[in-house]
Amino acid sequence: MTNIYMTARARYWRRRYYDIFSLFYDRFIQLHARQDESGTRSFLADSAALSHFSAPLGLDICCGTGAVLVALASRYPQGIFVGFDFSLGMLRAAQRKHLIGEISFTQGNAANLPFADDTFHVVSCSHALYELKGADRTKALNEMKRVVRQDGVVLIMEHEPPSGALAAFMFRLRLKAMGSFDAKEFVESGIAPFQMIFPSVSLRHTPSGKSKLICCRKCQDARTQA
Known about the structure:
Elements: H1 2-21, H2 25-33, H3 36-48, E1 57-61, H4 67-75, E2 80-85, H5 88-95, E3 102-107, E4 120-126, H6 134-147, E5 148-159, H7 165-178, H8 183-188, H9 192-195, E6 200-205, E7 211-217
Parallel strand pairs: 1-2, 1-4, 2-3, 4-5
Antiparallel strand pairs: 5-7, 6-7
Helix pairs in contact: 3-4
């Protein structure tokens, strides 16, 4: 009972942290990422390759204040997209934006998605998976695999460890402050954690080289089924 209580308290305070962080999150990202932010989101949206679907369904997990949703809805105005996050503050910040297209929001736990099997053409998660604890991260990936369609794709955007000494130090400091205990190992392990769950995994890099995009499919020949 003690471990369950401690875990519940930790989740509560982590959620409260992000509820407060949502008040200035966008400004923080603008200062941190500068010009790379919009290019990274556009790269993810283009990689979803949803144009051949008449009404694509998309799910953005750990959606934060909705940056990826904006990119997806702008690129695919015929689509229907869902933003999913455990922080009510983040979801409210996303709803306050002038979002185009058909977008809805749901609060919940990424390790237990409230959606039916084989629902979405694309499931995305941008720069957030490293923050989950190891067991929850594996559950979340299995949930993404469950809810994506046979002809769909799961897109995971993560940071690429920087090469410069100072940048690498700041990067490790950020992982320790915001990530789980194994965040550094996860980020540096490339596609290996995803290959344990998905039969088809490929790796791409954003034009800036600062982020990597892991493209996962639940079938080896999924691209031929669209």
